[in-house]
Design a protein that fits this description.
Residues 214-431 form the Peptidase M14 domain. This protein is an alpha+beta fold. The protein has twelve helices and 16 strands. It has two domains: 18-211, Immunoglobulin-like (Sandwich), CATH 2.60.40; 218-385, Aminopeptidase (3-Layer(aba) Sandwich). The strands form three sheets. Strands 1-3-4-6-10-9 form a six-stranded mixed sheet. Strands 2-5-11-7-8 form a five-stranded antiparallel sheet. The two termini are 37 Å apart.
């Protein structure tokens, strides 16, 4: 899935139908009352697969070959039920239960070492038939509402389409809604919520990937960094890639430095520092796509990009929670902590990316005496649309009214959702 991109076509929000949500809610109530009339067949169980040495060996074999193409050619004429898989980078699906001819209840895996945080999903589906509608109900969501109720669609990637050179990731799905279900959270008087959508697959015997949002993996990041390093002209653009630190699992956390080459007329020590970070929450893959666009804009040959490189030194940490991204987490890292709450007192052992990012900021500020001009941390949001800003109380350089008048931002920046200052917000984060 590395290098798989989405279309540049503007996406149309789906029209929510109150009748769809009402019918799904009524159906959920019927299932509770008449459970004996339903058949439940577990078709995918990650826990059982992890415990099986035989399946572990087969999984490793599958990783060493292009299994998607082989499976498409082989087919499974004798089985009509869907087949699922989630044992790949950023994948998340714990169990799939068939509850109807073409309807499945899906259970997501919580973040590593956690029993909560169920939102990000990313799984493989195969053995489908075209011209039939398949309904997927993700039944252990916890947020009280979702953009799936306000026009958002899940994304899908078809291997057959990709082999034919067509568009990669696309929005798909009908009858989409998000509602509270009848499953009770353990030890609480609250119920889970269901994300429900129906998909008509474009091809029979295809392999498709379905995700909450366009995935952007750690492997994709490293491929992009390698591509940037090979494509730039060092006489025009200064790009350096350093290792900021190693993660808990020993993965390299890259640090990018982008500016213009030094000259006598424009020495580097006269340029202001700009710090950019992203993906502290693994489920916010849109933050990585915004960071991708930012870096590619800074490395472009436009007059504006050249002017920025001449005036500023950009320090970029494109992925703060690498382990969470790799393991398909939604918010936490391997220590079951929200890294965005660890800035005040990060541990060098438990929170290495936060510790070293903060150390670099402090080194520039107090040792080099070069306080950053601005620090920007890219996030996504599960219930807000468009672009909005959160800023510190003494952030004089950020003029929201100016941003709203900018031709580049006025179509997407929503001023009423910007919050400057955010003292209470920062206090809640422990900053």
């Amino acid at each position: 899935m590395v290098t798989a991109r989405n279309s540049n076509i503007m996406e149309i929000l789906h029209s929510k139908s109150i009748h769809v949500c009402r019918n799904k809610l009524i159906e959920s109530i019927k299932q509770t009352i008449y459970q004996s009339s339903l058949f439940y067949e577990t078709v995918y169980d990650l826990d059982s697969l992890v415990d099986s040495n035989r399946n572990k060996r087969q999984y490793l074999v599958n990783l060493l070959r292009d299994n998607s193409k082989i499976f498409i050619q082989r087919g499974r004429e004798d089985v009509k039920k869907l087949q699922f898989e989630s044992r790949f980078e950023s994948g998340n699906l714990r169990k799939a239960i068939r509850v109807g001819l073409r309807e499945y209840e899906l259970i997501l895996t919580p973040d590593v070492n956690s029993s909560t945080q169920h939102q990000w999903f990313y799984f493989e589906v195969s053995n489908m038939e075209t011209n039939y509608k398949y309904t997927f109900n993700i039944v252990n969501c916890k947020k009280i509402n979702s953009q799936f109720n306000f026009g958002m669609k899940p994304v899908i990637f078809s291997v057959i389409d990709a082999l034919k050179g067509r568009i990669g990731w696309t929005r798909s799905g009908q009858d989409i809604c998000y509602y509270q279900n009848n499953y009770c959270m353990q030890g609480q008087k609250k119920n889970y919520f269901t994300t429900s959508f129906t998909i008509n697959f474009p091809h029979s015997e295809d392999i498709c990937y379905i995700a909450y949002h366009y995935p952007y993996t750690y492997s994709q990041l490293m491929v992009d960094i390698n591509r940037w390093a090979r494509s730039i002209n060092p006489c025009e653009i200064y790009l350096r890639v350093d290792k900021l630190c190693d993660t808990l699992n020993g993965n390299e956390n890259p640090l990018l430095t982008i500016t213009a080459p030094e000259s006598t007329k424009n020495p580097i020590n006269k340029r202001k520092l700009v710090f950019l970070t992203a993906r502290i929450h693994p489920g916010e893959s849109n933050a990585s796509w915004i960071m991708l666009g930012t870096v590619e804009a800074l490395l472009s040959h436009s007059t504006y990009a050249s002017s920025l490189r001449n005036d500023y030194i950009f320090k970029v940490v494109p992925m703060l929670n690498i382990e969470g991204v790799i393991n398909g987490c939604n918010r936490y890292d391997l220590t079951n902590e929200d890294l965005n709450r660890c800035w005040k007192n990060p541990s060098q052992i438990q929170h290495p990316t936060i510790f070293h990012t903060k150390s670099l900021l402090e080194y520039c500020s107090f040792i080099l005496n070069r306080r950053p001009f601005i620090f920007i941390d890219y996030h996504g949001h599960s219930r807000r649309k468009n672009v909005f800003l959160l800023g510190c109380p003494n952030l004089e350089i950020l003029n929201v009214n100016y941003c709203s008048e900018s031709s580049q931002l006025q179509q997407n920046l929503v001023i009423r959702t910007c919050y400057i200052p955010i003292l209470r917000y920062l206090k809640n984060k422990g900053l």
